[in-house]
Amino acid sequence: MNALLRLTVVASIALCLAGIGRGAEVGGVKLDEKATLAGQELSLNGAGLRTRLVFKVYVASLYLPQRAGDAQAVLGQAPRRIQLNMLRGLSADQLVDAFNEGLDANNSASDLAAVKAQIDQLSGIMRAFKEVKEKDVIALDFVDGTTRVVWNGETKGTIVGAAFNQALTRIWLGDKPVQPDLKKALLGG
Amino acid sequence: MSSFRRVCAIVIALFAAASAVGADVQGVRLEDRISLGGHALVLNGAGVRAKLVLKVYVVALYLPRPAKDVRAVFASAPRRIQMNMLMSVPSSEIVDAIIDTMADNSSPAELAAVKPQTDKLVALIRPFKEVKKGDVVTLDFIGGGTNLGWNGKFRGRIPGEAFNRALTRIWLGDKPVQTDLKQKLLGG
Asked: Dihedral of CA A76/A81/A86/A91: which sign?
């Protein structure tokens, strides 16, 4: 067998094996293509994500030294506070997912990459909450170039950098805010 | 007190009340002013985050041969419905969801015919208190009965094909829990 043919055969076998082991991935869950049940082989016919809508999640408020009517004017001021008063309980994971989706939607890939370490730090701080309950208050305070994560009046962590706080603020005030009418309300309606 | 002084007192009282009121959004009282890092901040605006989509579970359907409609699914055995939980859910909520969606997708006569089996499923689920994120629940239809599996362990068997059909219709019936999910399970 010449070298090229041998390489082709080996590569083809490797691809076949990879294909067999691949399975499907839905909502971050890896599903096997096959299952054995009572000695019979079953194939994955289909799979999907069950979602649930929850209503009235939190009241968000924005505090600034001077009133601002647009995002630019908000980001030009310090200190500032974004406060979330929870109207229902959420697991920390759900909160982290919601933040990360908002961050992804409102920041360019390069902006996100630049503050990835800080985003991971925020996720870690919030995961340590385990869950937030109805009436809990989360404040994101931007003071002296640092974001303080405050949970029910207690500072739970600090994250360095103005770029990170801007990325975070865009969750609510960016071009694709989590909710357009909420963006308007935060900018004074 | 003269009437003039009384009016003044009322005006002052109203003014004091107004300056302490702050904003009220959805029953949450927000201060008009706060102090942060030695600076006075004013409330710029406030609003409600109205809704959020939570990811509950991934559901998968395994069959001996591909099927595109419910009839073809019911003609296949054995079969497996598998749920990989993406969030923790109390077992009481699961029981309510099963009962409600079974009722949406079966006639009263069909429901009555499988009531003992439905009660048995509820009795198997209730003791768990909750299913946790990462748990895998399987409903295997084998040899004319449904085996409940929890993280790979057998938890109980419920006899009867009619019951398994009523259960399967939660996802594949005429009023499935989620329409796009039904399509996905049927390979769409």
From this structure: positive
pTM of this structure? 0.76
Q: Does A60 touch chain B (CB under 8 A)?
A: yes
Domains of chain B, residue spans: 3-42, 57-185
ipTM of predicted complex: 0.79
The domain defined by B57-185 carries CATH number 3.50.70.10: yes
Chain A nearest CA to B161, separation (Å): 17
Out of A43, A51, A66, the one facing B54 most closely (by C-beta) is A51
DSSP state of B132: P
| Contact assessment for residue A93 and residue B87, using Cβ atoms and an 8 Å cutoff | yes
CB pairs under 8 A between A and B: 215
Test A93 with B55 for CB contact under 8 angstroms.
Answer: no
User: Is B57 in Cβ contact with A50 (below 8 Å)?
Assistant: yes
Distance CA B49, CA B24 (A): 15
Residue A117 corresponds to which amino acid? Answer: A
Better pLDDT: A135 or A14? A135
pLDDT at A3 over 70: no
Q: Is A56–B64 a contact, with Cβ atoms under 8 angstroms apart?
A: no
Domain range A58-186, CATH class: alpha beta
Decide if pLDDT at A178 tops 60.
Answer: yes
Q: Which residue has the tokens 């689920």?
A: B125
Over range A111-138, report the average pLDDT: 97
Where do the CATH 3.50.70.10 domains begin and end in chain A?
Answer: 58-186
How close A121 comes to chain B (CA, Å)? 22
